[in-house]
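Write out the 3D structure for:
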Amino acid sequence: MRNKYSDEFKLQVVRQCLRGDVGIEELAHQLGLDYSMVRRWLEHYRQHGPSGLRQTRRHYSAAFKREVLERMRRDGLSIRQTEALFDIRANGAIGRWQRQYHSGGLTALAPKRNGRRPMTKKPPTPPPPPDKERSHDELLKELAYLRAENAYLKKLDALIREKGTATRGKKPKPSKD
């Protein structure tokens, strides 16, 4: 998920909250923001200063997740307080960890690997040079390739049509139900 608000904007909002001219709920309403999001920004700022408002991408170990959940339970902290204390900025992460832990124990908290490699962009193939710059042999090879491709597609089309007419002539089998 991409961060919708800049760090500077979040800092301005937090500073307005800390000035106390307007309450958090009213300020959030004035700016068209979710009240709970502004509260989260404020908690992160109180715990970590301006760096607490920056977006981070972290991967947490199962042991760290268990430690977070145990501390939250032991000290009676809310999810929001725990997020701020441990500087966890991913919305909903702790609630997700709780559900995973309750459904599958410590092993359910381990990071999942989907086994796929990340997609890499292939460099675009350069367009072929204009026909005037290509040799006679190159043009003949391309012509032979295109003729073969055309013949293959025609044969495939004929087979599909033949199979379609063969199945139209058959009566459907009665179901066994």
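The longest helix spans residues 136-168.
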